[in-house]
TrEMBL record:
Protein name: Transmembrane p24 trafficking protein 1a
Pfam (any one): EMP24_GP25L
InterPro entries, per database record: Emp24-like, GOLD_dom, GOLD_dom_sf
Originating organism: Amphilophus citrinellus (Midas cichlid)
Keywords of the record: Endoplasmic reticulum, Membrane, Signal, Transmembrane, Transmembrane helix
A GO-annotated cellular component: endoplasmic reticulum-Golgi intermediate compartment membrane
Length: 233
């Protein structure tokens, strides 16, 4: 199947935009949350699925947004490890879904663009998992070591809960907001470039029409004066 040159140009622009906005983030720091963000191109007439592993009694938040492509809409389905369809969105530009608590296994995140036969879509999605099982593993060991080796009057547990965990939570929220803002910026840039092309095209068409009308008027006036001179003579 051969593509029209304009379609190839649009595809190249989308690929460049995807390269500029590609974001893959894994945060496994002091806190129990695990974040994954990804930007990908969804071809026309196809469906792409991603898998996210979770443990029992965790919580998972899924957020997606269509950044570029005709219509700025895709279908989305979230399927549990047992095969039950938990979420089913049809032709949405964005969405946020929460699963709490989660089951032990792999959740399937599917993005559907089968209804669009010509336009590919650029999609950004982020998965945030708040793990309850691994919340205290490494931190408790670090706390025991510090407590046994240092003689301080303050309780390390209070310092961790009130200080380090709150700072880590704020940093995670800031990172999530920045990722969403980058997705919004990429979509707005795509819309501006697309609108600029349309405005430029129709401006050229209007200018051509005006020049054509002006030329016809000048030609008509000249013919009118020539006919008047001939009648007088």
């Amino acid at each position: 199947m051969h593509c029209h040159p304009s379609m190839k140009t649009a595809s190249a622009q989308l690929c460049l935009l995807a390269y500029l906005t590609l974001t893959v983030g894994l945060t496994l720091g002091l806190g129990p949350s695990k974040n994954t963000g990804f930007t990908f191109l969804l071809p026309a007439g196809s469906t792409e699925c991603f898998y996210q592993s979770t443990a029992m009694n965790d919580s998972m938040e899924v957020e997606y947004q269509v950044i570029a492509g005709s219509g700025l809409d895709v279908g989305f389905a979230l399927i549990s490890p047992s095969g039950h369809r938990l979420v089913s969105d049809f032709r949405r530009s964005d969405g946020i879904h929460m699963v709490d608590p989660t089951a032990d296994g792999d959740y399937r995140l599917c993005f559907d663009n089968s209804f669009s036969k010509l336009s590919e879509k650029m999609v950004f999605f982020e998965v945030v998992i708040n793990s309850q099982s691994s919340a205290g593993g490494g931190q408790d060991e670090w706390l025991d070591i510090v407590t046994s080796e240092s003689m301080v009057d303050y309780k390390m547990e209070d310092i961790r809960v009130r200080g380090m965990d709150s700072v880590h939570l704020y940093l995670e929220k800031s990172r999530q907001v920045q990722a969403v803002l980058r997705a919004f910026e990429a979509r707005d840039r795509y819309l501006l470039e697309d609108n600029l092309w349309r405005v430029s095209f129709w401006s050229c068409v209007n200018l051509l029409v005006m020049l054509t009308v002006a030329g016809v008027q000048i030609y008509t006036l000249r013919r009118l004066f020539d006919d008047t001179k001939r009648v007088r003579t």
